[in-house]
Amino acid sequence: MTSPEIASLSWGQMKVKGSNTTYKDCKVWPGGSRTWDWRETGTEVPSSTVEYLKKHGIDVRVLQTEQAVKEYNALVAQGVRVGGVFHSTC
Question: Which end is more exposed in the chain, N or C (fewer Cβ atoms within 10 Å of the end residue's Cβ)?
Answer without folding.
Answer: N
